[in-house]
Structure prediction request, 87 residues.
Amino acid sequence: MFEPYEYNITVKKVVIDGEHFFEAKVKELPYVAEYAETFEEAYQLAIDTLQTSMEMFAEKNKPFPPPSTPEDEEYSGLMTLRMPKSL
Prediction:
């Protein structure tokens, strides 16, 4: 069963043409970006877009990307620490 709340959605505040908005992006669908005046509205728009996209993929018999998990991430193990020269 499709569960849009399992997808990785990030919401951040952005400034566009001098106006403040909240931008919601879905990691698994890089072409998805929704904008709204509140955090909750931007998040809900991303959920709605996921549901609509799933329906469109199903109509065209195309596989829909599954939610990514932490195991899907590859890390180099490299960690950088910046310190002032005075230390």
